[in-house]
Amino acid sequence: MNPVDWEQELKKYEDVIASGTNCMKIKAMVMLTRLSKHAPEDVLARTIPILTEILGHNVSNDSAPTLQEAAAYCLKCIACRGDGELAVEIGGHGATRSLMRLLPHSEGRMQKVLTKCMLVIVSFCNASRTVVATNGGVELIIGLLSSCTEDTRRYLLEILSVLALRRDVRKALTRLRALHYVVEAAGFGSMVSRERACQAIGLLGVTRQARRMLVELGAIPVLVAMFRDGDHATKLVAGNSLGVISAHVDYIRPVAQAGAIPLYAELLEGPDPSGKEIAEDVFCILAVAEANAVEIAGHLVRILREGDDEAKASAADVMWDLSGYKHTTSVVRDSGAIPILVELLGSGSEDVKVNVSGAFAQLSYDGTDRMALAEAGAVPILIDLMNDVDEVEELRDNAAEALVNYYVDPLYHDS
What we know:
Blueprint: H1 6-19, H2 22-35, H3 41-55, H4 64-79, H5 85-92, H6 95-102, H7 108-124, H8 126-134, H9 137-145, H10 150-163, H11 167-175, H12 179-186, H13 191-204, H14 208-216, H15 219-229, H16 232-246, H17 252-257, H18 260-269, H19 273-286, H20 290-306, H21 309-322, H22 329-334, H23 337-347, H24 350-363, H25 367-375, H26 378-387, H27 393-407
Helix pairs in contact: 1-3, 2-4, 3-4, 4-5, 4-7, 5-7, 6-7, 7-8, 7-10, 9-10, 10-12, 10-13, 12-13, 13-16, 15-16, 16-19, 18-19, 18-20, 19-21, 20-21, 20-23, 21-24, 23-24, 24-27, 26-27
């Protein structure tokens, strides 16, 4: 096969657009669409001003919509090439404003083509997102969503999920009482778009009013579904957003009842430090409810038995936090964790031992827990650790704090 002379093909295209009939122009744009998968990006870039000019024409003849539809489709295909630079250039030539002007008066296939073109451009081009967000684009998208076909709805929701990462757009969505579209976007469309919507839910959920509205609109089961079914990056986003939602006492039980606790346990066991951090923080929130604390403790005990050193250290850290809650000290004791923690205090990694000793220092303030620790053999190990100058200072301090509580207890003073 002979190599394509791209300069010659570009010249043919320019000549047809400059002087051909409308039918010839549409055929030329269809051919450009096919060639866009293989043409060099610098050649494609030279077609962008021509296409955006066609898209922006204010003409009233019957052929104009067909020409503009073909131009939008070409621009969409070109914008998908490369790493987004062509999409940025398309936005720079004013395509976004033209699309916003055309969309309210479009329907059917034309509307779908225009919407898909806008989606690709705003996904890559921050300046285009600004144009849409600051020129009535949020109201435009919401208006189209109220009357669009199912075929186009997906792309409108994906545009909204991109825009909702902007603070001004989130404020507008709250003001317009349109948060249900963000929740819908988190459960519908491409995984990338759904992840963006999950992130937007987390950002919206920081405020009490929006958090309440999101919960009422069904955000919890949508986030749990993404947490369960998404890839690793999506799990982190969904887990973090769900943690934001759970940061109110009214939503602690619904989050747990939706099945979130086992999913956070998976994060705690996983290799990603940020996932462990998210799981630790959310466990400490959810454990405010005693029933949740019991379930969480069960997962922690399993991880303390079966996990690697990093997972055990994280589980012990959560146990340390739970040991400070008045209603969960008995939960920790009844979970069967203490004998396992005592074993880890003597043979675990440095991080594990530090966190276990912190938990023991906290538990040692309660008489029943002191007895449980002593019966499991914790006291001699604590003494050895306190006297071992090679151990880290935090570990020795925790051991000393626990032993002070044993010293002031008449039952253990002499020992």
